[in-house]
């Protein structure tokens, strides 16, 4: 069997290698797919901080993904129409600059995660799942019924937002941006897992009473983890919206929350590269199976069922021959 | 103020069952106060009421001159109550070292550090390794906690409590599962520990209790029926009848 | 706003609440007895509605359609319990969520495959299609009144089942302690299948009853499922009484909120923005209700601490 480290290096290199090949073969659609996989992987890496490390089964992470998307959509639509977002009490204008949009997406989704987490973390177990699901759905319905930004139809952005010094309209350059952000995300998640905070967070998942007994409050630790996790998923949402140049309430849908969890599980729970493997597999399945059958979700469902029932280590577990994730 | 821990009239009922019924006891600096009693006497309930995690129906817990009754488990731990569990309560996926590091981190309080690897914190590692060495687990530092024997888990429990440098130890059956030589070693260790911080010791191993305890309280059906030195307790007729079971055995 | 309109809306709220109860009761029972969170409960609601629509189209009988809904949903429930769900009782919630999420994908796409993407229609029986006059001269659709009545009867039956019957005793014992129930000599796996099928049948019935008011389509169970979760969070997991109170609260809040909030905002805003703000807030009202309950009673109104 291959070591998990080798599998990780392989997974990490797979995306840029695919893009390089697609660029040589002049297949821009493949580059778009790889970009999509990178962005979804980032969302999954974010979720995995709460889910894998903290054991917090959030079924509402689409809330943050959607907020990131709308942060992009709202800012860019105002820039596009030259109408300021707000004039009183101070002027806020729209923007087409990715770094600014990212910052807004991070802050917005972090704040939302703070509010949702503060309430949801008062509960645990199955309550937590239902509560996060419900809050995600609340934002979904709100996005549908709030008419100012397209309501159910969503918002289209005509030209992709800009990044200083790069041409974001070029698929390869946009891929590189997304991949760079993913790399930073993975790096931060890796450091986090090994930090003092990571030690306490993972301990709180294994045994909350133990953490309390050494004088650390699990609630606060989990809330901070939830905020970091939500912010990273929110950033992915902003990138996803930029990839499609479109945002709509479906970014808030609970199916998306479910799919984000699926990425983490397909790849392998609690593994740093789990969501990366899961997101790539998902995009691949969507493309291949989706091309074969309009009902490809049946096959996805069956696959997921098999993984949950019989292959708990996920893809990385199968490749590296180890069921249990190790530090 | 020599009573570091002063428990006054604690009560807790579960339905019709009075798990603890008007329990008062004290723990003085430098002593080991053992709490004995038959199974189901309410010892573990009492420990939970003292450590937090179980709200009392009535009564109060004073610690180092301060009423800690309204405080959470976390706040009581920070105030200096170092608890070990009857059924080991450890992070099972972690290595032995990681479990002790968690204790050291709790004592340090710097949990909101997200970037620097915990293994690079030499101060915490030293503290953790010192505690492991004191209980004799230093050679198992890299072992997975789930792979430890029962007795080793008890030792690890004690090591985690040591990293906290508590003002008081609450130990719930630290000898359970240790075996004869392990018990002897732990007895010797606890004997020396009392000068660092007094120990409220719940224990079934009577040899250890009589060897260690400065005072013994006997809990039966949630009530303290006697408190005194080992000799006084051995001679107490109520204790003999209710707990030591001399009558029946004779 | 007239009193008549208000009473009508209260009745609508009751009607949607009582249907939510049928969903939530099954979910909460399954959680209480087996400790399982079942996301695919909405799929069983959908199965009931589709079975009813198909049978109604073939036979023209609404009663047969309802019977078909009950049977189909119960059978689907029993099958997934036997094949998938029972492997999940000892798993953690994450595995349960994922496996039942997978079931949703299979059910939804499978239904789309068989019935197509276009909604089906299930007609209200002719005898019930008109309004009835209530005291005070209020005209209200007979069918909706019937739904309320049916729901209340089922709620009463469910309470009686749990309080009085042998299976109810087993269910309560199972909630308290799995070992105890095994010691009573009850065949646990049979009991679990039965409880699951019962919950499924309730969901299927709700799907068929509501299907006659709304359209029958793929995905129809999902919004109801999430509302049922909100109900359970408010009422407290495992409590049938909590499910009833929670369902009525959610049904009434949702219905009245969407009517009253725009009117409230119109009292100090212009009409179009009042409608916009009011209806946007109305969609959030039940979640705000849930947040309020979480603040004061994190385990729900009737949940065990």
Automatic annotation (TrEMBL), chain A:
Major location category of this protein: membrane
Q: Which organism is it from?
A: Sulfitobacter aestuariivivens
| Membrane-crossing residue ranges in chain numbering | 7-25, 37-57, 62-80, 100-119, 126-149, 172-193, 223-240, 260-285, 297-319
Topology relative to the lipid bilayer, per the entry, is:
Multi-pass membrane protein
- The name on file for this protein is Branched-chain amino acid ABC transporter permease
> Which molecular function term from Gene Ontology is one that the record holds?
branched-chain amino acid transmembrane transporter activity
GO (cellular component) term, any one: plasma membrane
Which InterPro entries does this entry report, sorted A to Z? ABC_transp_permease, LivM-like
Keyword entries, A-Z: Cell membrane, Membrane, Transmembrane, Transmembrane helix
Q: At the top level of its lineage, which domain of life is listed?
A: Bacteria
Q: Identify the CDD domains for this entry.
A: TM_PBP1_LivM_like (cd06581)
Q: Kindly list the places in or outside the cell where this protein is found, as annotated in its UniProt entry.
A: Cell membrane
Q: Which PANTHER family match?
A: ABC TRANSPORTER ATP-BINDING PROTEIN (PTHR30482:SF17), HIGH-AFFINITY BRANCHED-CHAIN AMINO ACID TRANSPORT SYSTEM PERMEASE (PTHR30482)
TrEMBL record, chain B:
| CDD domains cross-referenced by the UniProt entry | ABC_Mj1267_LivG_branched
Q: Superkingdom of this entry's organism?
A: Bacteria
Q: Which PROSITE patterns match?
A: ABC_TRANSPORTER_2
What Pfam families would the database entry show?
ABC_tran, BCA_ABC_TP_C
The record's listing under SUPFAM superfamilies reads: P-loop containing nucleoside triphosphate hydrolases
Q: Does the keyword Oxidoreductase apply?
A: no
Record's GO cellular component terms: plasma membrane
Cell wall biogenesis/degradation keyword on record: no
The entry lists its GO molecular-function terms as: ATP binding; ATP hydrolysis activity
SMART domains in UniProt? AAA
Q: Where is the ABC transporter domain?
A: 5-246
Instruction: Extract the InterPro entries matched here.
Output: AAA+_ATPase (IPR003593), ABC_AA/LPS_Transport (IPR051120), ABC_transporter-like_ATP-bd (IPR003439), BCA_ABC_TP_C (IPR032823), P-loop_NTPase (IPR027417)
Keywords (alphabetical) are: ATP-binding, Nucleotide-binding, Transport
What PANTHER family does UniProt report for this protein, alphabetically? ABC TRANSPORTER ATP-BINDING PROTEIN (PTHR45772:SF2), CONSERVED COMPONENT OF ABC TRANSPORTER FOR NATURAL AMINO ACIDS-RELATED (PTHR45772)
Question: What is the name of the protein in this document?
Answer: ABC transporter ATP-binding protein
Organism equals: Sulfitobacter aestuariivivens
UniProtKB/TrEMBL annotation, chain C:
Q: Give its localization.
A: Cell membrane
Membrane topology, record value: Multi-pass membrane protein
Transmembrane ranges? 18-37, 44-60, 66-85, 97-122, 142-163, 191-213, 219-237, 244-268, 274-296
Q: Which GO terms describe its molecular function?
A: transmembrane transporter activity
- Enumerate the UniProt keywords alphabetically: Amino-acid transport, Cell membrane, Membrane, Transmembrane, Transmembrane helix, Transport
Name any one Pfam family assigned in the record. BPD_transp_2
Provide the Gene Ontology terms for cellular component.
Answer: plasma membrane
Task: Output the GO biological process annotations, alphabetical, semicolon-separated.
Answer: amino acid transport
Where is this protein primarily located? membrane
Question: Into which family does the record put it?
Answer: Belongs to the binding-protein-dependent transport system permease family. LivHM subfamily.
This protein is called: Branched-chain amino acid ABC transporter permease
């Amino acid at each position: 069997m291959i070591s998990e480290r080798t599998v990780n290096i392989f997974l990490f290199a797979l995306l840029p290698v695919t893009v390089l090949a697609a660029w040589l073969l002049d297949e821009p659609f493949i580059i778009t797919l790889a970009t999509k996989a990178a962005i979804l992987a980032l969302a999954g890496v974010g979720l995995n901080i709460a889910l894998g490390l903290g054991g917090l089964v959030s079924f509402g992470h689409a809330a943050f993904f959607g907020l990131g998307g709308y942060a992009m959509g709202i800012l860019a639509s105002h820039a596009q129409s030259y109408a300021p977002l707000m004039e009183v009490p101070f002027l806020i204008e729209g923007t087409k600059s990715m770094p600014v949009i990212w910052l807004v997406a991070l802050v917005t989704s972090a704040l939302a995660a703070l509010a949702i987490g503060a309430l949801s973390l008062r509960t645990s177990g199955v309550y937590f799942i239902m509560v996060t699901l419900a809050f995600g759905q609340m934002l979904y319905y709100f996005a549908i019924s709030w008419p100012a930004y397209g309501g159910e139809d969503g918002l289209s952005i005509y030209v992709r937002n800009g990044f200083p010094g790069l041409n974001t309209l070029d698929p390869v350059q946009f891929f590189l941006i997304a991949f760079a952000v993913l790399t930073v995300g993975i790096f931060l998640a890796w450091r986090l897992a090994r930090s003092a905070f990571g030690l306490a967070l993972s301990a709180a998942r294994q045994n909350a009473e133990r953490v309390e007994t050494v004088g650390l409050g699990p609630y606060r630790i989990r809330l901070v983890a939830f905020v970091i996790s939500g912010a990273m998923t929110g950033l992915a949402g902003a990138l996803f919206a930029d990839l499609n140049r479109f945002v709509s309430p479906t970014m808030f849908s609970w199916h998306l929350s479910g799919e984000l969890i699926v990425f983490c599980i397909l790849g392998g729970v609690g593994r740093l590269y789990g969501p990366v493997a899961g997101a790539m597999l998902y995009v691949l399945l969507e493309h291949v199976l989706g091309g074969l059958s309009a009902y490809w979700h049946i096959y996805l469902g069956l696959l997921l069922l098999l993984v949950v029932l019989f292959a708990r280590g996920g893809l990385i577990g199968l490749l590296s021959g180890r069921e249990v994730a190790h530090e | 103020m020599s009573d570091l821990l002063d428990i006054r009239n604690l009560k807790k009922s579960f339905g019709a069952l009075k798990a603890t019924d008007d329990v008062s006891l004290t723990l003085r600096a430098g002593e080991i106060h053992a709490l004995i009693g038959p199974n189901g006497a309410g010892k573990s309930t009492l420990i939970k009421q003292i450590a937090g995690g179980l709200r009392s129906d009535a009564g109060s817990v004073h610690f180092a001159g301060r009423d800690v009754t309204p405080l959470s488990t976390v706040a009581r731990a920070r105030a200096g109550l170092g608890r070990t569990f009857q059924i080991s309560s450890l992070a099972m996926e972690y290595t032995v070292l990681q479990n002790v590091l968690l204790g050291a981190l709790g004592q340090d309080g710097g949990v909101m550090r997200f970037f620097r690897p915990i293994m690079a914190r030499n101060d915490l590692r030293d503290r953790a390794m010192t505690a492991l060495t004191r209980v004799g687990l230093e050679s198992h530092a890299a072992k997975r906690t789930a792979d430890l024997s029962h007795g080793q888990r008890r030792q690890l429990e004690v090591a985690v409590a040591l990293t906290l440098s508590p003002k008081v130890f609450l130990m719930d059956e630290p000898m359970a599962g240790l075996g004869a030589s392990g018990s002897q070693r732990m007895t010797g260790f606890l004997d020396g520990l009392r000068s660092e911080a007094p120990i409220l010791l719940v224990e079934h191993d009577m040899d250890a209790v009589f060897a260690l305890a400065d005072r013994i309280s006997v809990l039966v059906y949630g009530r303290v029926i006697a408190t005194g030195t080992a000799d006084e307790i051995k001679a107490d007729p109520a204790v003999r009848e209710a707990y030591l079971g001399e009558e029946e055995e004779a | 706003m007239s009193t008549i309109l208000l009473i009508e809306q209260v009745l609508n709220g009751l009607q949607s609440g009582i249907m939510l109860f049928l969903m939530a009761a099954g979910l909460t029972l399954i959680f209480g007895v087996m400790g399982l969170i079942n996301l695919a409960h909405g799929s069983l609601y959908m199965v009931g509605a589709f079975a009813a629509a198909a049978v109604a189209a073939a036979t023209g009988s609404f009663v047969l359609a309802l019977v078909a809904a009950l049977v189909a949903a119960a059978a689907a429930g029993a099958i997934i319990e036997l094949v998938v769900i029972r492997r999940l009782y000892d798993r953690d919630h994450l595995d349960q969520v994922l496996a039942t999420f997978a079931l949703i994908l299979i059910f939804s796409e499978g239904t789309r495959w068989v019935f197509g993407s276009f909604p089906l229609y299930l007609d209200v029986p002719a005898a019930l299609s008109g309004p009835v006059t209530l005291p005070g001269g209020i005209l209200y659709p007979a069918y909706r009144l019937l739904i309320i009545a049916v729901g209340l009867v089922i709620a009463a039956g469910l309470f009686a089942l749990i309080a009085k019957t042998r299976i109810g005793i087993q269910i309560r014992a199972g909630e308290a302690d799995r070992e105890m129930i095994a010691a009573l000599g009850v065949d646990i796996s049979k009991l679990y299948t039965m409880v699951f099928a019962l919950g499924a049948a309730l969901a299927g019935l709700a799907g068929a009853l509501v299907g006659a008011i709304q359209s029958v389509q793929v995905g129809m169970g999902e919004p109801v499922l999430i509302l049922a979760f909100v109900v359970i969070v408010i009422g407290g997991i495992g409590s049938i009484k909590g499910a009833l109170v929670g369902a009525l609260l959610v049904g009434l809040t949702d219905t009245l909120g969407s009517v009253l909030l725009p009117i409230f905002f119109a009292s100090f805003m212009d009409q179009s923005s009042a409608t916009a703000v009011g209806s946007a807030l109305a969609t959030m009202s039940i979640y705000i209700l849930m947040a309020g309950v979480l603040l004061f009673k994190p385990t729900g109104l009737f949940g065990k601490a």
